[in-house]
Each structure stands twice: as C-alpha cells, then as structure tokens.
Backbone:
C-alpha cells in the first residue's frame, strides 16, 4: 500500500461559549476552515479533492444533514467534490483523519480534505417526540451542548454519570491532587499565550469575525488563582471550571494525500501518518482510554515511547491528562508545549484535527521526528495517531 501524508493544517481561532463566534453557524465555521486550508495550498485545484471527511459531535442543529457536504458547498468548492460527516464525539475529526489516511493508503483516493466543527454555543435544545399525539404530562427541553441526553434507561447508572463525575472518580483512583491539576491548567494557559506571542500559530489559524486569537486563553493564570475556584461536580471534589476544558466554538481542517499528491498540492508534506490506534473501556473511565490507544498506535508505527519527541494530548480535564502522562511514563515537558484545550478550547468535533495539525507543525518547527496525537472520547473510547516528520525522517 502507498503511504499517507499530512500536507497542511488550518483552523479558526476557538471562541468562548457565547463569545465572539456565537453568531456564526457551524456550517459557516467549517467553510471558513476549508477556505483557509485551500488558501494555504494555492496550487491545488479544489476539483482534485477526491473526498471530504468531516467530524462533528452534535448533528442536532444547524450542522444537521451532513455538515461536511454543506461546508464544501458553502466554501465554494465544485459540486463534484463529495463529503461525509462522521461522529465519534470528541474524537470525530481525528477519526476523520484516520479514515482519510486509510483511504489514501488503500489507493481509493489521492487527496482527501478532512476536519471538524462544533458550535457549542448554538447547539439546540431538543424535545423528545412522544409515541402518541398530545401527551398529558410536561415535556422538558434537553440541551445538546455537552454530555448525555435522552439516556436509555437500560444503561447502567455508572456508565451515564456526568463527564466531570467520571473524572472525579479518576482523580480518586490515581490519587491526583487538586494542586497538580491546577498547576497543569495554569501551564496550559501560560504556554498557549507564549506560543501565540511567539507567532507559532500565525500559519495555523485563519481569523474569523474579527477574532484573531483563541478567546479563552488567560495569560495571568497561576495555580494560586485557580486554587480559589470552587469544585464543579462534588462539594469536596478537585475539578473546577479552571482545570477542565471549557465549552467552545470553532473548526479545524487538514489536507491528507499520497506522496504523488505533492505536485498537485504544490508543497512537500509535513509528516507521514505512521500509526493509528483505537481503544475502548468502561464508559466512566473514558479519560484514561488514550493510554492504550496511543500504545497501539506506537506499536503499529514500530517505535516506542523512548523515541517520541512531541505529544499533543487533548486536555478534556487536567486530571485525565495527568493520568495518561503518568501511565505513559513520559516527560511532561514534551506534552502540549504550545498550550492545550484547557486554555485553547475544546469545540468537540474540531479538537482532533487541531491536535494533529499542531503536532505536525511542532515537529517541523523544532526539527523533531516522532510525535503522538491522542484524544479521549465520551462513552469510554480514545483515538491516537503517530506522525513522523518528513524532513526529520530524511535527515535521519
């Protein structure tokens, strides 16, 4: 089989819940990310894109009816460019990249555009549809912004606990203190701010609606300030609004192709997709699932953790990030060195593509060879991808 490569990555800035991107529909957010990606690959004729695979976790509102296809049309691509939308919750756009890489490797496509979008601000309330007309009782509207909704009563209660409660259980299981979580969260904000100030995101982010920078970054965050926040899920808990990822709006896009695609794209690839991993466990333990997903991806790439130079781990919660880092026994200093989701944000469907694109640019910028992108997923799953920098591969 041929090899699959990551050629380009672009995303919008991530906006706060109810913030600067609140008035922008998710299909329009996706179209902006696609347009930005194609602008960075100006030699590519959009008609040469064989397929689009797009991630989205909600699908209940304005992103309904295959938002990937809607974004292609709104971005002005030829109507001959097809698209599909995939949903693996928080991992949707990383799943899209994995699907695209397999498609390229099998020879079914040469160039595939992938990405994801989420507007958590605009996620609608939904009403369950009664089996008979005119029910006598009240019907409650259910928010689709985050987490379980319209739960099947056959599900065990421990499986359907809130995401925060699940991670409080993880904190207790591994003895991860509130102080460690707050230190990790403050680091995320400080590194994200430093990365933006250093210009590392200038080629990765396309402005939208006058928003030029991730809206949720708090440069002045310190462990001491975060320690003053009240627990969000248990009165005696460790998880707060400060050491968990926020609700966000945004979109990310990637260009994946074969080695033969370089001439049509007009640039050399950034990285080779060297390994993929997926893992599942009990739903309440979802935060720990990246451990084995990443181990599987490394095994398929034929390398070990001792060869990994950079890690992009989606920071759903500080506690689950720390649990994974501890389990991998890696140097925390190689993880999320340009900030993570606690600071940058976690618009569910867009996050997987964000961490994969950021990882590729980190490897190139720092002349490193091997990197891992991993993300936990609600209901007990995780995905991971190993990248090998093309330039460093050649040098070595």
Residues:
């Amino acid at each position: 089989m041929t090899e699959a490569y990551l050629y380009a990555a672009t995303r919008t800035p991530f906006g706060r819940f109810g913030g600067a991107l609140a008035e922008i529909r998710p299909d329009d957010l996706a179209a902006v990310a696609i347009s930005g990606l194609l602008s960075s690959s100006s030699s590519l004729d959009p008609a040469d894109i064989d397929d689009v695979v797009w991630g989205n976790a909600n699908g209940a509102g304005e992103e309904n009816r295959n938002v990937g296809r809607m974004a292609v049309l709104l971005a002005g691509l030829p109507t001959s460019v097809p698209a599909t939308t995939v949903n693996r919750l928080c991992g949707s756009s990383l799943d899209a990249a994995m699907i695209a890489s397999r498609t390229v490797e099998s020879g079914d496509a040469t160039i595939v555009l992938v990405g994801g979008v989420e507007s958590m601000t605009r996620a609608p309330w939904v009403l369950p549809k009664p089996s008979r007309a005119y029910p006598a009782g009240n019907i409650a509207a259910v928010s689709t912004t985050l987490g379980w909704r319209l739960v099947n009563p056959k599900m065990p209660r421990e499986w359907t606990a809130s995401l925060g409660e699940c991670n409080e259980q993880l904190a207790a299981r591994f003895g991860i203190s509130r102080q460690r979580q707050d230190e990790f969260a403050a680091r995320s904000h400080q590194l994200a701010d430093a990365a933006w100030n250093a210009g590392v995101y200038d080629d990765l982010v396309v402005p939208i609606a006058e928003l030029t920078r991730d809206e949720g970054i708090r440069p002045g965050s310190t462990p001491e300030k975060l320690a003053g926040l009240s627990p969000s899920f248990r009165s005696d808990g460790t998880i707060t609004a400060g050491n968990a990822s926020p609700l966000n709006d945004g979109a990310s896009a990637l260009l994946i192709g074969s080695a033969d695609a370089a001439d049509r794209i007009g640039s050399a690839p950034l990285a080779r997709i060297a390994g993929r991993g997926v893992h599942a466990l009990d739903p309440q333990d979802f935060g720990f699932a990246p451990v084995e997903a990443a181990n599987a991806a490394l095994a398929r790439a034929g390398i070990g953790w001792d060869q990994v130079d950079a890690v992009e781990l989606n920071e759903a919660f500080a506690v689950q990030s720390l649990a994974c880092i501890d389990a991998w026994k890696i140097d925390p200093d190689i993880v999320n060195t340009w900030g993570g989701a606690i600071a940058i944000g976690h618009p569910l469907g867009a996050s997987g593509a964000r961490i994969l694109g950021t990882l590729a640019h980190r490897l190139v910028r720092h002349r490193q060879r091997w990197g891992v992108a991993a993300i936990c997923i609600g209901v007990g799953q995780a995905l991971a991808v190993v990248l090998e920098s093309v330039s460093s591969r050649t040098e070595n």
Summary: The first strand starts at residue 5 and ends at 11. Residues 5-122+245-388 form a domain with the Peroxisomal Thiolase; Chain A, domain 1 fold (CATH 3.40.47.10).
